[in-house]
Amino acid sequence: MKDLGRLITAMVTPFKENGEVDFARAKEFALALIDTGSDGLLIGGTTGESPSMNNDEKLELFKSVKDAVGNNANVIAGTTDNNTYGSIELSKEAEKLGIDAILLTVPAYNKPTQEGLIKHFQKIADSVSIPGILYNVPTRTSLNMDADTTIKLSKVPNIVGVKEASSDADQITNIISRTDDDFKIWSGNDNETLSIMTTGGYGVVSVASNIIGNQVKRMMGYILDGQMANAVTEHKRLLLFFNAIFWVTNPIPIRYALNRSGFHMGPPRLPMTEAPEDFKNKFDPIMDMYNMDLPV
Asked: How does residue 152 score in pLDDT terms, banded at 50, 70 and 90?
């Protein structure tokens, strides 16, 4: 299976003022993200507001981004939800478009057992030949995929890793320790990248890299080069921004930051709303402490 990259950006979806997906802007944004350090792009994830998009929009967005980046970056498509057979259908369609991998997100709302998770993900993975990355995010799904489940799923040939956003350090370390070296663990939270990578994790699926990708990449580079003092210093410098972009529900803050920077991504789509004024009043001084990496 191909290497999907250490820094994968969970890409914000650009919308026009009338609420339509701005596919042309998505192409421009994807290229800008590659230029600022991203190895891969996750399209149609949480940060991309996938729950408010239909399948036709998602497929057009996958195609637009893949056409734009070609072989210069990997495109991971958010094709799965709590409908196993619907997820299979969308995953097959994404594979036909030349997408590099799919994201296998723990189902929300119906709360299956751990055995249900295994069967759900195995059936989806078996339906395609491209790699799949598991995604465990209990704060969104109300369901934790435990370490034993992830370890069992790591034996599925084309399930190549997990985006871990459980914030459970013991669980994540357990997964790292008990899976083969070719099974990758990406941090699902920017503020945990340092700790996860220093215990054997591979990289991060980042929200912050939508706008400070070079800086995230630099911190990761220090870790990989064994320059731990520099890595810790950079982590501490970026930590306030990492936390601030989650002060209200993601992706409201990062979309606001992009628009404020002058790299316009349009409004969110309901049920997401614009950033509230009290957030802006607290966030603006924080944002002004950092240089943004995107070209404006």
From this structure: very high
